[in-house]
Amino acid sequence: MSELIKWFERKRQTKAVKLIQQHLAITTAIAEDLEKAIKAALKGEIKKRDASVKRIAQGEQEADKLRRRIMDELSSGELLPVDREDLMHLTKRVDMIADWSREATRILTVLPLTEIPLELQRALIEMTENIKMCVFEVRKCINKMMKKPEEALQAADLVERREEEVDDLHEKARKLLAEQRELKVGMAILTHELLGALEMVADACEDTCDQVRIISVRR
User: Fold this and answer.
1) I need a labelling partner for 64 at 20 to 30 A (CA). Which of 9, 28, 89, 185 fits?
2) E strands within the chain?
3) Residue 82 — pLDDT band, cuts 50, 70, 90?
4) Does the structure show a pLDDT above 60 at 199?
5) In sequence order, what are the residues at sequence separation of 6 or more whose Cβ sits closer than 8 angstroms to the Cβ of residue 25?
């Protein structure tokens, strides 16, 4: 067992660990709102879309503040430099999930999703639902690392499989987009950018759990 995992077992009530938990909670809330924002946009419910987008923007800002507070706490703690660095990398990767979610909403607010073909709309919904589940699996994975480290690697594998599902859906959506002949160029570009930002949310999930693996196996 790594020294950092042992530290978690001893220090579950420390300020740093509590801040990490808060950071994860905000990130999963952002994932929920991302799904709500896209589904509202697809229905033309602009007020609901904008409400979710506003919460995501606020959540991303709060996540950034928490990331900085976590870094401050870790820098003054008792961890060895390598363990402190591992935990900082983990926090940064979780933060990228929020950052890419926010980026997706920036595109979403200028893209009239009701005008894209139904096949693409369905692909977006399926992709977003899987991304939300991927983010939830990340939270479970990190919690297992801190509380049941023997189960962390299996949880990381679940995240990776979910990310692969998102990759498959992204590929399917891009093919659908390439087949469109009547979609305006600007709409096609923005849709492509939205799909790319959503994929990056899932990629950030995978990167986070790769860091969990590093922490779990380091001796």
Assistant:
1) 9
2) none
3) confident
4) yes
5) 139
151 CB contacts (<8 Å, ≥6 apart)?
144
Specify the number of domains making up the chain. Answer: 1
**Euclidean distance between CA atoms 9 and 32, whole angstroms:** 30
CATH code of residue 209: 1.20.58.220
52-81: average pLDDT = 89
pLDDT surpasses 90 at 33: yes
CA-based R_g, the chain, Å? 18
Domain encompassing residue 118: 3-217
H or E, element range at 44: none
| HSE toward the beta carbon, residue 44, CA cutoff 13 A | 3
Contacts (Cβ under 8 Å, ≥6 apart) of 63: 23, 26, 27, 30, 94, 95, 98
- For 186, the token pair is 């600007």
